[in-house]
C-alpha cells in the first residue's frame, strides 16, 4: 500500500509541477522577463516546490534529517543527470554550444556551495548562533553573494533565446488564468510533496534501504521529474538557455531549501546531525558540476566537436557510480 501511495503522490507531483512550469512561463512572458531569468528563477523555483514540501515534512513532521538532506542533495545530482541525458540524446543540437556564458556564474556558485556542504558534513561543526548552525550562516552569506553576482550579470545580459524558433505553447493563456492556475498547482504540490516524504520514510523502514539512500535516490528522482519535463519542453522549443537555466537555478534553489530547513531543525545544525554518507552526494554533485562547467566553457572555444557527447556520457557514468557508493554505505 505504501508503494502505491508513493507512486500516486509522484504522479500528482509531476503533473502539478508541469502546470506550475507552464504558468510560471506565462507570468514571466507577460511581465517581459528574459528567458534566462525565467529559467534560473521562475521555472527553477516552480519546479523545486516538491523539494520544499518534502524537506519541511521530513524535518518538521518526521524529524528525519537524513531524508531531508538526502532529498535535497540527491535532487541536485539527479538534475545534472537530467541535463546530461538530454544533451546526449539531442547531441546533434549541441545544447551547451548554444548556451549563454552567464550560466558559468550560476554553476560556479553551485559548485562552491556544494564544496562547503561537503566540508560541513565532514567536519560536523558543533557551533551555532541563535539555534542556526555556523556552517549554515556561512552558506547563507555565500548564497546571497552569489545570487547578487548572478543578478548583476543577468542584468547586463541580452537574452539569446528571444528569437527561438517555434510558436509559444503558452501564448493563449491569459495572465489571470496563469495566476489562478499557479496557486492551485502550488497547493497540489504542497499535498503531494508531503505525501512523498511520508511514504518515502515508510519505504526506507520497510525495505531496510535506509533514509540516506531513499532520500538521495528515490524521492530525489521523483521530485526532479518536473525539471525533466520542463527541460524537455524547453529543448523542443530550441530554448536552450531556459533548459540549462532551469536546472542550474533549481540546484541553487534546493540549497536555499537546505539552508532554510536548518531554521526549523532545533536540536543542532542540520548538517552536523545528518549522516556522513551525504558527503558522498555533496562531493559527487561538485564533480558532476565540474563536467557541466567544462561543457559550457568548451563550447565557446571549439566549433566542430566530433566527440561533443563525451562529457555528458562521463557525467552519466559517474552519477551511477556515486549512487552505488551511496547505496553500499
Describe the structure.
Helices cover 76% and strands 1% of the residues. The chain is mainly α. It has a single domain (2-160, 171-328), classed as A middle domain of Talin 1 (Up-down Bundle). It starts with a helix and ends with a helix. The model is unreliable at 158-167 (pLDDT under 50). Keywords: Membrane, Transmembrane, Transmembrane helix. Its main location: membrane. One of its GO terms (cellular component) is plasma membrane.
CATH homology group: NCX, central ion-binding region
Distance between the termini: 28 Å
Calculate the mean pLDDT score and round it.
79
Helix content range? over 70%
Global outline: globular
Number of helices: 13
CATH topology: A middle domain of Talin 1
Residue windows where pLDDT falls under 50 for at least 5 positions: 158-167
User: Tell me, what is the CATH class?
Assistant: Mainly Alpha
Q: Bin the strand percentage.
A: under 5%
Q: Which CATH architecture? A: Up-down Bundle
GO biological process, one term: intracellular calcium ion homeostasis
Protein name: Cation transporter
Subcellular location: Membrane
GO cellular component, one term: plasma membrane
Give a quick summary of the entry:
The protein is built from 13 helices and two strands.
Question: Any key phrases for this structure?
Answer:
K/Na/Ca-exchanger; Cation transporter; 329 residues; globular; calcium channel activity; NCX_ion-bd_dom_sf; membrane; 13 helices; A middle domain of Talin 1; mainly alpha
